[in-house]
Amino acid sequence: MAPDGGEWMHQEMPQLMSALRGAKDFETAAATTLKRMLAVAQDAVASSRYAARARVLRGIVHLRPGEAYRRLAALDVGSAEITDASVGTPFFTSATAWRAVVEHRCAVSIDVNVGTVQPHAPDAPVTGDPGLAGFHSNESRQRFLGRHATHVCVLPLRTPGGSIEGMISVEADCLAAMGQEFVWREAGDQLQLLADVAAPYLAGLPQRPVATPEVDEFLPVVGRSMAELLPILRVFALQDETILISGATGAGKSRLARWCHERSNRRAKPFETLDLVTVPEDLQMAELFGWKKGAFTGAVRDAPGSVARADGGTLFIDEIDKLSLKAQAGLLHLLESRSYRPLGEGTGERQADVRFIIGTNADLHAEVRAGRFREDLYYRVNVLPVRMPALQERQDEIPLWAQYMVNRRHRERSPEGSARVTQDAERLLVGGTWPGNLRQLDNIVRRAYTLAMVEHAVSGGELVLHEKHVARALDYEQAPGGKPLPEALRAAAQAFVAEARRRNAPLDLDLADAFRGLVLGVAIRQVGRDDGFKLLGRESLVKNRNHHKALKRELEKVEALYKALGEDASPFADLLSEDEAA
User: Fold this and answer.
1) Which of 167, 190, 196 is nearest to 103 (CA)?
2) What is the DSSP letter of 129?
3) What is the DSSP letter of 355?
4) What would the pLDDT profile of 488-501 be if each residue is shown by its tens digit?
5) Cα separation, 406 vs 421, whole angstroms
6) Closest Cα partner for 401 from 571, 577, 576, 222?
7) Banded pLDDT at 83 (limits 50, 70, 90)
8) Which of the residue ranges 13-17, 321-325, 410-414, 517-521 would you say has the lowest mean pLDDT?
């Protein structure tokens, strides 16, 4: 017989607190917490009418601060150690359950066979209410049933500051309770108290050290923070449900998407990328679904869309926040029904055998609140969310990325020979700031490589990037010493004329048109592409999704100027070929 609430608290809480204080890592704290929560659930079942017909199966800690998964730990009843999440049926819960936990800040009960999610808060709606619909997903139901879970209790991990850093789910098997009240409400207060006590430890303790993962062509550099993220990404990669990768522009989201594809069951099939930054709003549906001849002006032949090209494989849709509301409705239908119709096709729909990975550098939840992103689509893509750390959070990777980039550049120019970056140069790079992430770093390395090539042509032998080369390359990124704008413009004009006089040959005045591209490039570096155009009074181009064409036109003028000046590439060459580095 289970002890009453006061006796239970007197017995259990000191033991739990002592064990958590002694825990050195997340996994130990998770195992400690789950053992006690499973014991509470077993006591509740033993004293219920389902005692002979139910069994508690396991508990799972889902650590997902800021909406993104970071860690996952499962403990089966009777086990002493955390289960390897990459083996067997994946330990994910319902996206609707997470939504209900966050919205109501309380535990929820899931009846898997009936397909309901019931928050424990008084008068909270079950699924079926428009505000919480979503656990009709067959994938979620089959995932639960695949691990024999018919009834699940999901509890928020509430930290003292009030934030919800994740959830703990406790699973049981009891067909006799289908459509009936199970034991979760009865045990809920004790389970929630254990979760509340453990939450700061689960959120704050480090992960156990992981073996250095093998690098490959898709992730050629893996530092400590990425090494901690890869175990859960391996689990995500094996699923067919949607992965949402958030992170700053240039951080490497497309690399990570390709890495997931190569570790999925679809790796032998196509990997297709649709970068919405490059697609005008009125062509988004066409690029996604394809079109038939005559579907619109300029459709002179049938053309497959990204979905068809990715058939059997993976479609990575980057910058999903740039999708128009009309195209969002089309994508929602595709995700829900796994079917679509190319533009101009009369009747019937085609089936889509595609795994979706979504990328964004925006706060999609904020976009929902602002009315720019559909709430129902948000919950459809926010199934397996991860956050790609910015390069500034991965400083241990900077020297390794610099060496990788200089070697790649050297192979492009000279298949023979070798190149390296000195330690002093590496220290200078690590001390820098990288708002442009890997793309900005690649641009700096390419520029420093060009400077080093000048000396290398004379000295021969191994090409070495010294601190002075990196320092000069970084100088291009710096502000012009705080001069007033008129004075800085006059100095630029004087430098242009001085260069023409030095040459004793004309320097075409049309090359001065590159100034517009230089201004635009600096603005994009500082505030991002869309905001850069808006900052410079070109919001209409952003609204019509034509700003990528304007950027290309202006940066081509910058490239022409730098070529005329004998430079290998402009400071914004990466903006013309963004996919190359990330």
Assistant:
1) 167
2) B
3) E
4) 788 788 888 877 87
5) 8
6) 222
7) confident
8) 410-414
CB 559 within 8 A of CB 576: yes
Instruction: Give the type of residue at 201.
Output: Y
Number of H helices, E strands in the chain: 22, 17
Residue-level pLDDT at 424: 93
Nearest Cα neighbor of 63 from 507, 293, 485, 387 is 387
Both tokens of 510, joined, read 């049309």
Query: pLDDT averaged over the chain?
Result: 86
- Other beta carbons within 10 angstroms of residue 187's beta carbon come to 23
pLDDT tens digit string along 118-159? 999 887 666 543 333 445 467 777 888 888 999 999 999 998
Contacting residues for 47 by C-beta, under 8 A, at least 6 apart: 1, 2
Q: Taking the complete model, does pTM exceed 0.90, yes or no?
A: no
Asked which of 41-50, 71-80, 280-289, 547-556 is least confident by mean pLDDT, the reply is 547-556
The helix/strand/coil state of 245 is strand
Nearest to 133 by CA among 331, 375, 367: 375
Residue type, 315: L
Dist. CA 21–CA 26, nearest whole Å: 12
Treating both helix axes as pointing N-terminal to C-terminal, what angle do 26-46 and 5-22 enclose, rounded to 10 degrees?
160
Residue 386 contacts residue 233 (beta carbons within 8 Å):
yes
SS3 sequence, 488-549? HHHHHHHHHHHHHHHHCCCCCHHHHHHHHHHHHHHHHHHHCHHHHHHHCCCHHHHHCCCHHH
**Helix or strand or coil: residue 272?**
strand
User: Can you tell me the distance from the alpha carbon of 441 to that of 421, in angstroms, rounded to the nearest whole number?
Assistant: 13
Q: What are the residues whose beta carbons fall under 8 Å from the beta carbon of 71, sequence distance 6 or more?
A: 26, 61, 63, 207, 228, 232
Query: Residue 232: what residue type?
Result: I
Report which of 155, 152, 150, 153 is spatially closest to residue 165, judged by C-alpha positions.
155
In terms of Cα–Cα distance, which of 520, 516, 505, 481 is closest to 565? 505
The first and second tokens of residue 443, run together, are 């641009």
Q: What does the block give as tokens for 232?
A: 């859960």
Phi, psi dihedral angles at 170 (to 5 degrees):
-120, 125
Q: How far is CA 562 from CA 13, 80, 519, 558, in A?
A: 69, 64, 15, 6
